[in-house]
Amino acid sequence: MRLSDELADMTQIETILVGYLALVTGIGVYSFFKVKDASDYYVSGKRGSWWQISGSLFATIMGGSAILGTIELSQKAGWSAAWFLLSASAGLFVLSMISRKISLLGHYTLPELLLRFYGKRAEKAASLLIPVAWTGIIAAQIIAGAKILESLDITNYQNGALVCGAIFIFYTLAGGQLSILKTDFAQALIILAGIITMFILRLAHPPVIHLQEVPEITLFNDAFKVADLLILMLTYSITFVVGPDIYSRIFCARNEKVAQRSVIIVAVLLIPVAFILTYLGVMAGGQATGGSGFVIPGSSFLPPWALGLMAAALLSAVMSSADTTLLNSSMILSELFTGDLDKPGGIRLTRIFIVIMGVFSLIIALKVTSILNALLLSLTFFSGAFIIPVIAGLADWPIRRGNVIYAIVIGGTLALTGKILTDLYGIAIGYWLILAAFVLNASILLAGSKAKKKPPTKMTGGYTL
Q1: At 25, which CATH number?
Q2: Which of 184, 214, 253, 453 fits as disulfide partner to 259, beta carbons 3.0 to 4.6 Å?
Q3: Which has more confidence, 207 or 126?
Q4: Are 177 and 41 in contact (CB under 8 A)?
């Protein structure tokens, strides 16, 4: 291909990406002028319809860590990489059983639920630890976005991280949930269009590879065993049953029925998407584009317009997951200092934390470049610390309130230790430590005398807790 043709093709890709980035930035500016009060900024006025909540939930889940993480895993584990999103779907089906109660009880954040269940100390502990754990997840999205742009030879990794970080920080800062619901729905459509387009074109242009190079269609192999699935369920799947970013979508729903319907729709949708993404990753083989060694399936056979659409879809996934996580973490920190997000100055403080957390996550992304490592380390700590206490509260377990802080700290630390031992040293005991974190967490909560629950208290904003 002549140089002029290569420049023309790159112009098409860049034009599509610039148009996409301008769209989400414009939505942020528009939403800024629509925000009237705290409810608009934090839960979009609690007016979300099923298609808005479904779109936002799907886009949030299909973050760069999910799409690119599945593709990255398929290079090592073949078809068993489908478990990455299948486990997310399983978590959502469980969530659908309790989503009505969560929607009914929820106000703005997950720590507020812990306040209801266990009191102020548990809320403060969660408000300190969740943003720390979620910083790695925000960083994972920036890593993914930077690798996408680098793999297309549009810019280098560092500049790509700066561009992606600056844009999603801006529109999250400007419009809050009003901005996020609007951008997420548009991004969900772009994600689906990109994945389906690439899948159809891949079928029309099968790769020229030897049959022995195609991994056997099996969900378990030497690179991914049943024990790996168990750990994935405990550290990843379960975060879709209890997760601040997932709950923030539910809190935006106009009622409990909308919340439940949206969760079920996305759970079903993730099943075919899991196999499509795994197929694309498997068929991409070891071919990578750009200098990053990072694979964008389809870069070798997609026409420029389709490659631009695919790049926009991947960036949409990155942005939609990053914005939700960034806003939710910033809300939690702001609430820790204000005591009530409805107080005057709550939005202003939240915006300050959006900038601080966004910049800190960007710095991490410039230093750590593995998507799955950044993601799963954060999720493992969160899972070991908070899954059991939240489930216990929702299920009305008769637990000892004074033990909650110990359960959170010990469970999270033990799970994180197990994950580090497994990843860095391949020590099998790491798996058992992660499992033990959940057992020990529950044991600490239930240890001692069974305390009676305090009578319900009244929380600001008209929500009875």
Answers
A1: 1.20.1730.10
A2: 253
A3: 126
A4: yes
152, 158 contact by CB (below 8 A): no
Q: Give this prediction's pTM.
A: 0.81
Chain centroid to CA 251: 16
The answer to whether residue 423 sits within a structural domain is no
Model pLDDT for residues 390-401, shown as the tens digit of each residue: 999 988 888 888
- Domain assignment present for residue 463? The answer is no
Residues 361 and 344: their CA atoms lie apart, in Å, by: 27
The number of folded domains in the chain is 1
**CA angle, residues 442, 446, 449, in degrees to nearest 5:** 170
* pLDDT tens-digit series, residues 239-258: 899 888 888 889 888 899 99
Distance separating alpha carbons of residues 26 and 20, to the nearest angstrom: 10
Structure tokens at 27: 């939505």
Q: How far apart are the first and last CA of the chain?
A: 66
Residue 426: which pLDDT band, with cuts at 50, 70 and 90?
low
Q: Is residue 408 within 8 Å of residue 129, measured between CB atoms?
A: yes
pLDDT band of 267, cuts 50, 70, 90: very high
The answer to whether position 365 is within a domain reads yes
Examine residue 401 and state whether it is found in any structural domain, yes or no: no
Residue 135 to residue 292: CA distance in whole angstroms:
23
Range of the domain at 239: 12-371
Mention every residue, 6+ apart, whose C-beta is less than 8 A from residue 77: 221, 223, 224
